[in-house]
Amino acid sequence: MTKLLLLGLGRWGINHLRNLNNLPVELYVAEVGAKQLDPARKLGIPEARLTTNYKDFLPVVDGVVVVTPAQSHFPICREFLAAGKDVFVEKPLTLDNAEAKALAELAAQNQRILQVGHILRFDPATLWLREAIAAGDFGRVNMLRGHFGGFKRPRNDSGVMFADGIHFVDLFNFLLGALPKRVLAVHHDFLGRGMDDVSLVSLEYETSHGHTWATIENDYFIPGKFREVIVCGDKLSAVCDYNISQYKIKTYANLHVREGNDFKGIEGAVHQIECPPEEPLLAELRAFLDSIKTRQAPRADAWSGYDAVRVLNAALESVKTGRAIPLD
Question: What tens digit of pLDDT does each residue of 263-300 get?
Fold first, then answer.
């Protein structure tokens, strides 16, 4: 049985604990304080597999699930990869381009699995959208729009773009199978923390489908919880609400038809798409275990993590300079 170490039991780490406890693994857990290990104790994890010093289990486990603050990702992942362990790390892979690239290269050199927690890649709705785009169902994809936001407590290890915007940056890269050519961004720091709490990012893609303009909005303020993506093609459009468990996608066969010098807007058929109700976190953890066994690269590999970090750092440069930043 695969021996996995869960490193971190914060707000999201608790969800990892719940899912890993239901998977066929021998689970070890590490946190900085003994009290923080109580959730693992309540689930019946033996005391011998709990620690406040993760290095205790480094020689024992086959892999690690890293759910710690973003600044700690690079040294922790580097340590486990260098020790020959497979790694699942929550997004972002790192905050720095060079560090993200170094981890991807180290994983490749050591022939280790390095999976990044780009959870939306494992949502059935995402797979439906990606396949429909690739099949040409949408025609030319003109626009992508995403709003990942809502009123909640801000994270203190990064701004809202790195905390939340990264989900849709990676999602759009995955849906289009490409990286943006240019990145333009505007940030606001209403709380005065020295980090963005509102983020508007514009991405320009050039793909086999043509030119696609994508926008991503993130915030900590608007009442409610928003996880919405809109895909607008010249044949079909879709609205996907990731808050919904099963009927996430609604498609619209709306068309613009030229009549002389004018265009006429024709509203077409509307269809509700049923997606299998599956918890994406459980799906990505299962995928990590499969990769450990098969040695096949994960769907959200280290290079996808590196690419997302590159886009976000280009956005930060755009905020500083006030201009669009080309992505090499």
Answer: 888 899 999 999 988 899 999 999 999 999 999 999 99
Q: What is the pTM of this model?
A: 0.95
pLDDT in tens, 62-118: 999 999 999 999 999 999 999 999 999 999 999 999 999 999 999 999 999 999 999
Distance CA 87, CA 79 (A): 10
For residue 7, give the 3-state DSSP assignment.
strand
Q: Given its phi and psi angles, is residue 310 left (phi above 0), alpha (psi -120 to 50 degrees) or beta? A: alpha
Domain count, the chain: 2
Amino acid at 35: K
Domain span at 137: 121-278+310-326
Do 66 and 209 share a domain, yes or no? no
266 and 133 in a common domain? yes
The CATH number of whichever domain residue 237 belongs to comes to 3.30.360.10
DSSP class per residue in 221-240 = -SSSEEEEEEEEESS-EEEE
User: Cα(71)–Cα(95) distance, rounded to whole angstroms?
Assistant: 7
Secondary structure (3-state) at 83: coil
Alpha carbon distance 74, 71 (integer Å): 7
Q: CA torsion, points 253, 259, 261, 266, in degrees to nearest 10?
A: -30
- Where does the chain have alpha helices with state H? 13-20, 38-42, 73-82, 97-109, 124-134, 160, 166-176, 280-294, 302-321
Same domain, 126 and 100: no
Are residues 99 and 143 located together in one domain of the fold? Answer: no
